[in-house]
Amino acid sequence: MKKIITSLLLCFSAIYLFAQEETLFGDLHVVGAFGAPIIEVGAINGEIGADVGGGGALVLNNMFIGGYGMGTSYPEYVTASGDERNIRFKHGGFWLGYTPKPHKVAHLYSSLKIGWGSARLREDGDDIAKDRLFALTPELGIEINLTRFVKVSLSGGYRWINGISKLDGLDNENFSSPTGLLTFRIGGWSDSDEWDRW
């Protein structure tokens, strides 16, 4: 009887081991989550300004996957016909990132924002013209662990915009720009117990 039970257990164990599914992301584990205020400095139509927004994500090992949203109102723009308009610009979407050795006090930080949004020309609070856009913003920089719950990164990137065709005198090139970003990631990470000095 013992031999039969032992044989059955071995058979079930073998079946279980062979039945283990292999997956592309099988080794990824959720190790934290965060919310993040974001400040992005760039240019629209040659005018330097700051986009303000935020995002949030789940942390999977050294990567994160989440979403973001940001926007701004730029100073007056004079159209080709001589009219004064304000530019309103906003976009949001997916936010992906990778931070190797996040337990180090200072470490590499990279992210990619893939978003959709709109650009508008406004006068006295009313939309005069509006266009939808696609935004792609890769960035690379350095992140510092300020505390166990707060990380701050300073990075540089490029905001690539596509889809602008209905705004008087403005096109994709007027909205695409090199960027500098300041990001505060506030949350919890399982790597905080492994921090070392440098």
Can you put this structure into words, describing what you see?
The chain has 198 residues and is mainly beta. It has one domain (24-194): Beta Barrel (Porin), CATH 2.40.160.20. The chain is 11% helix and 63% strand. The chain has two helices and eight strands. The protein has helices at 2-18, 172-175; strands at residues 30-44, 47-60, 63-78, 84-98, 106-123, 126-145, 150-162, 177-189. Strands 1-2-3-4-5-6-7-8 form an eight-stranded antiparallel β-barrel. It is elongated, with a radius of gyration of 24 Å. Residues 8-20 have low confidence and may be disordered.
What coarse outline follows from CA principal-axis ratios? elongated
CATH structural class: Mainly Beta
Fraction of helical residues: 10-25%
Which stretches are low in confidence, meaning pLDDT under 50 for 5 or more residues running? 8-20
Give the distance, in angstroms, between the N- and C-terminal Cα atoms: 60 Å
Strand segment tally: 8
Fill in the CATH topology.
Answer: Porin
Q: Largest sheet, if any?
A: 8 strands, antiparallel, barrel
Strand content: over 45%
Give the mean pLDDT.
84
CATH architectural designation: Beta Barrel
The helix/strand class is mainly beta
Separate helix tally:
2
Cα-atom radius of gyration: 24 Å
Number of domains: 1
Short recap of the structure:
The protein is built from 2 helices and 8 strands, in the order αβββββββαβ. The protein is mostly beta strands and 198 residues long.
